[in-house]
Amino acid sequence: MSEPSVDDMINSLTDELEPVKPMAHPMARALPWMIGAAVYAWFVVHHIGLRPDSLEKLSDLHFLFENMLVGLVGISAALCACWLCVPDMRGQKWIIAVPFSFLAVFFLWGGLRSLIEGVHMETAHFGHCMGDGFWIAIVPAAIMVFLSTGGATTRPFLSAFMASLSVASFGYIGLHFTCMMDTVGHAMVYHLIPFVLLGMALGLIARRLYRW
After folding, report:
1. Distance CA 31, CA 69 (A)
2. 3-state secondary structure labels for all residues of the chain
3. Considering only 74-83, 135-144, 165-174, 192-201, which range has the smallest mean pLDDT?
4. Alpha-carbon distance 33 to 121, whole Å?
C-alpha cells in the first residue's frame, strides 16, 4: 500500500473524531462521593433522630469495631466502583480483593456474634428501619450509579455489586445510630434487606446500565 493511501485511510478513520475530556482519576471521583454520602447520611440521621444511647454506644468497643469495619467495606467498595469505570482498572485489579476481604471479616464477625449472643429476630421495627434505610441511602445511591456509569466498565455485574455495597455500608452505619436494636438477626435482616434488594435490582439491569 502506498504512503498516500495510508494517509487517506487514517484521515477517513479520524475525520469525525472530536476531542474529549479525559476521565478524572478514580480517587478524585470517589472522594467527593464518600464525603458527600457521609455528610448526607449524618443530616438524615439527625433529622430522623439519634438513638437515646448514642453517646454510650460511642464507648462500646464492639459497636465501634463493627461500624469501623463496615465503613472500611463502604470506602473500599466505593473506590473499587470508581476504578472499575476504567476498562483495565488502570492496571490495579488487586483493588477488587480489598472490599471482599473486609466483607469476609464482617460476616465472620457476624457469625461469631451469632454463636455467642444467639440470633434474636424482632419484627416490630421492620417498617421503621426499612423507611429510614431508604432515606439514608437514596441520594448516595443515585449519585453512585451516576458516577459508576460515567466510564466504560468491562465488568457490569461487579460494578453494580460494588456500587450497591458502598451505599449499603453507609446506610447500615446510619441505621446503627437511629435504631436501638443491635441484635445480629435484626441488623442482618432488617438493616440489610433494603440494600440487598437494591443490589439485586442493579444486577438485573447491569448490562443495560453499564453498556458502552
Report:
1. 18
2. CCHHHHHHHHHHHHCCCCCCCCCCCHHHHHHHHHHHHHHHHHHHHHHHCCCCCHHHHCCCHHHHHHHHHHHHHHHHHHHHHHHCCCCCHHHCHHHHHHHHHHHHHHHHHHHHHHHHHCCCCCCCCHHHHHHHHHHHHHHHHHHHHHHHCCCCCCCHHHHHHHHHHHHHHHHHHHHHCCCCCCCHHHHHHHCCHHHHHHHHHHHHCHHHHCCC
3. 192-201
4. 34
- Domain positions in the chain: 26-42+57-209
Extract the C-alpha cell encoding 2. Answer: 502506498
Distance CA 100, CA 161 (A): 11
pLDDT in tens, 51-69: 898 888 888 998 999 999 9
